[in-house]
Structures are given as structure tokens and as C-alpha cells.
């Protein structure tokens, strides 16, 4: 009976080591959130503790403008939106009209997502700045964004 118990413990330990090594070889590390970014690719490398730990979630909308004139265009649009009486509705209309993202069809709505799912610059704004306010322009590898944070939960 003791041999069987020891054999099961050895198997469990071996399986955990195999699982851990598999995760490391597939891009996970013990160092949280290592980020590599280039013009054409952004990679977020989740740490082991990030993967298993609790995540905040948020709901946001955005307007994406690509190209050199994106920042100026978004600054002008942000000024216009700051005078809005119905920010959510006007932001959605502006997203439908100006955004280069497929989410433009839904008024820029990205739905609910967890921390770490978006590129780092976007994530930083969504999970630390005020709710119900237009933020940006925020620069990412995709272009320049205005972001409207709708909700956030711990």
C-alpha cells in the first residue's frame, strides 16, 4: 500500500513538473508581463502568477485613427466630445464615423475584457484612469485611440 501511494505521489509530482515546463516553453514565465513591441507585432508575455491570479475586468469603447494625422484629429474630436451632453451616444456616433477599427460598426464598443488582454498602453488607461471620461490620444502599435471607459470591476 505504501509503494502504491509513493508511486502516485511520484506520478503527481512528475506531472506537475511536466506541466510547469510545458507552460515555460510555451511563452509563460515567472516574471509577470514581459512585453515585446515592434511596429508590426506586439506580444504580451503573461507571467505564471498573472495567468492564475484574479483579474480585473472592464468595459470600454474606442475610436482608432491610423496614420500620421491621427493624433491631431483625435485631439480635435476629444475637444468636441468634452462639450457633449450625452457622451456615450455621441462617442458611439463619432466611432462609427471616424474609427478604423471593425468595432466602429458597434459604436466602438469593445465589450468586457480582462486586464492583460489589450496592449499595455491601452490596458494602463482602462484599468487606472477615470470612468465615464474620454481619454487619449493613446498611442499603440495599431494607431492612436480615444478611449471611453464605461465600467470596471475588481
Protein structure class:
alpha+beta
Strand content: 25-35%
Instruction: Detail the poorly predicted runs.
Output: 29-45
Shape assignment: elongated
Quaternary state of this entry equals single chain
Q: How is the biggest beta sheet arranged?
A: 4 strands, antiparallel
Structure description:
- This protein has 154 residues and is α+β, with helices and mostly antiparallel strands.
- The protein is 40% helix and 27% strand.
- It has five helices and six strands; from the N terminus they run αββαβααβαββ.
- A four-stranded antiparallel β-sheet has the order 4-3-6-5.
- Strand 1 and strand 2 (42-45) form a beta hairpin.
- It starts with a helix and ends with a strand.
Give keywords.
154 residues; alpha+beta; 4-stranded antiparallel β-sheet; 5 helices; elongated
Strand-helix topology:
Elements lengths: L1 H24 L8 E4 L4 E4 L2 H5 L4 E9 L4 H13 L4 H12 L10 E6 L5 H7 L7 E7 L2 E11 L1
Antiparallel strand pairs: 1-2, 3-4, 3-6, 5-6
Amino acid at each position: 500500500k505504501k509503494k502504491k501511494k509513493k508511486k502516485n505521489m511520484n506520478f503527481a509530482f512528475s506531472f506537475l513538473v511536466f506541466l510547469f515546463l510545458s507552460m515555460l516553453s510555451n511563452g509563460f514565465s515567472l516574471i509577470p508581463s514581459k512585453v515585446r513591441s515592434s511596429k508590426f507585432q506586439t506580444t504580451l508575455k503573461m507571467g505564471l502568477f498573472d495567468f492564475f491570479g484574479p483579474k480585473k475586468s472592464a468595459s470600454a469603447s474606442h475610436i482608432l485613427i491610423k496614420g500620421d494625422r491621427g493624433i491631431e484629429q483625435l485631439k480635435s474630436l476629444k475637444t468636441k466630445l468634452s462639450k457633449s451632453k450625452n457622451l456615450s451616444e455621441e462617442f458611439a456616433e463619432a466611432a462609427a464615423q471616424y474609427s478604423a477599427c471593425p468595432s466602429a460598426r458597434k459604436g466602438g464598443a469593445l465589450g468586457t475584457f480582462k486586464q492583460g488582454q489589450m496592449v499595455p498602453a491601452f490596458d494602463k488607461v482602462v484599468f487606472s484612469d477615470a470612468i465615464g471620461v474620454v481619454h487619449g490620444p493613446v498611442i499603440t502599435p495599431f494607431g492612436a485611440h480615444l478611449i471611453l471607459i464605461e465600467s470596471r470591476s475588481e
